[in-house]
Design a protein that fits this description.
By secondary structure, this protein is mainly β. The protein is built from no helices and 8 strands. The chain has a two-stranded antiparallel sheet. Strands 2-3 form a two-stranded antiparallel ribbon. The protein has a two-stranded antiparallel ribbon with strand order 5-6. Strand 7 and strand 8 form a beta hairpin. The protein is elongated, with a radius of gyration of 24 Å. 0% of the residues are buried.
Length: 103
């Protein structure tokens, strides 16, 4: 987490006055995990992953894009991708949580 400070300065003629120093912290509110559905897969089996995104903040996020390089890595001078995306297999689920407030 990153910390920040902020201070205002007021100048009037030859007079300078500084405000107090405000200190804050930028917290990560979005987290993502990628998990294989099963622990083991056999040769030529399809591997199924679940990608979960959690928003622990109070502001809703819209238009988030998730990308996956499918395990791509550099071998000598070539980029190799050991997995292949199967078109039409992406399922999305949107879940909204509502906070309960007591008066």
């Amino acid at each position: 987490m990153a910390r920040f400070t902020n201070q205002a300065q007021l100048r009037y003629g030859n007079e300078i006055t500084n405000s107090n120093i405000a200190v804050g912290e930028i917290t990560e509110v979005l987290s993502a995990t990628k998990t294989a559905v099963r622990d083991t897969y056999g040769q030529n089996e399809n591997v199924t992953y679940v990608i979960s995104i959690v928003n622990s903040g109070t502001t809703a996020f819209n238009g988030i894009t998730v990308t996956d390089n499918l395990g791509e890595y550099l071998f000598n001078t070539r980029e190799l991708t050991p997995l292949t995306y199967i078109p039409g297999t992406v399922n999305t689920m949107q879940t909204e949580f509502y906070r309960q407030h007591r008066l």
